[in-house]
Predict the structure.
Amino acid sequence: MTSSINTTMGTREWAMLITLSVLWGGSFFFVGVAVTDLPPLTIVTLRVGIAAITLWCIVLVMGLRPPKSLEVWAAFLGMGLLNNVIPFALIVWGQTQIASGLASILNAATPIFTVVVASMLLPDERATPLKIVGVMIGFIGVVMMIGLPAIDGDNSLLAQVAIIAATLSYAFAGVYGRRFKAMAVNPIITAAGQVTASALVLAPIALAVEGPPDITEINTGTWGAIFGLAVLSTAVAYVLYFKILASAGATNLLLVTLLVPVSAILLGSLLLNETLEVVHFVGMALIALGLSAIDGRLWRRRVTAKA
């Protein structure tokens, strides 16, 4: 169940999109700090658990009421699995093997998958020839970033594939999340509901696989990264996520991942002393070209100007 959206974003949507890109770009830095002291599933569980507490506090302060419908809570569970449990676990594990900047660039493939998935499942987000060209160009960029290191015997190939699998999950989440507008659920409650469902799923899995964390071994820097990851990159970010999704749709929303690598790379290079190879920048440039075609506005302006 979905409702129609505006396929062209205005100033408000672009401002929210840029803000979201900064918040999500910071998540790669926060994870890069946290993985030094904590295992992947524990990080993901703390991320969604603390975010859930933060968001429900906001809900109470605003005087909003949690939904009672089982249908809505079932939708929260589905969204939590697609948007948090699966991609967060894959990305955090992937970052134990590869640098945060490279992880963020691979994550920028999300709109490529979203165009395909949205075109198949959403009647008001059908793919145009220009979008299809954009998908092809972007896909070449992703293949370049993953394929060339594999030819050189890079042992991090599986980690890179994990990040790509996470982007596919994000694409399905963007399409799945369109239903909350039709359900008339407030974006803050939607954000709170999905991270709550995610925390309930992840907590027993993390305890069974990794055991309870030794709190005494976690330093203040790691705790700071966890709270930054949960409050800024999850709680605040998902409120913006569902606001943009409700007004501009899945394809436009997930263009955010084109902007995420810029902030992630700056944070990684400035604070984590990370470096990227030339091939990664070439791949990112191809993805950027592909996403500009997916968006379409710059290309249509050039055609109009020449005419």
